[in-house]
Amino acid sequence: MDTILRTDMPQLNFIGSGKVRDIYDLGDQMLIVTTDRISAFDVVLPNGIPGKGKVLTKLSKFWFENTADIVENHLLTTEVDEMPEICREYRSQLEGRSMLVKKAKPFPFECVVRGYITGSGWKDYKSTGEICGIKLPAGLLESQKFETPLFTPATKAEVGDHDENVSFERMASDLGRKDAEELKRLTVAVYERARDIADAKGIIIADTKLEFGMYGGKIILIDEVLTPDSSRFWKKASYQAGKPQDSMDKQYVRDYLETLDWNKTAPGPKLPDDVARKTSEIYHGIMDILMK
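The chain above was modelled as a monomer; its predicted structure follows.
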């Protein structure tokens, strides 16, 4: 299985890279190519995950289609033949891992929704009794389900920097309360739709992060949606509150990295071949379950 870490398309107007995606400006549209790079603790690791970019693209398309009645999104097509002709010369780099999208102006926050207490939320709760300024009841168990999902925004980090969890009030102060309230509403609505779809297939979506932008005076859903890079997926059959869960997502990589003597700053360590291969199997596995 081919692994693409960087795209090379000199006839297209390259405008930058995120942790995973390479972005090209096509005038009034953008081309987003999802590589096989993987980041953990906001550091891009030196080697990639075979086929990962194609999994993220397929799953994002699936969720864009299944939430389009809730919120408009930026996706125009994932088919190379439907993209501008200049793209077709690079079919080998684009097939299955690229999206032609509307050119939206992103909001400077990640919109995180938590259905269960885990990850950084669990760490914050143990030390402060709160998550992102939200006071929670005493005695919650690790991986316990919240009665209602929590909206906990974060600032978006540049490559090499760390995302910062912030309060909703901080977000409202920066964006204005009207937009902040709408982002919260849309984030929870998308999560609840996906949660119910996944539940019917035996999967718990513990949490996820979404990104939105402004396009034509409206808020639209952008970037990726409900992938194993941006979400925590657990199997319902083995779920048990009070302990960590076996995840079908990037947590497998994080767990491996936690065993190393690494300070979680760049440069990141190279993943062993068996860890990269197992991660690829996990990503393909959750895609197959969710899209069946």
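The chain has two domains: 13-105, 106-261.
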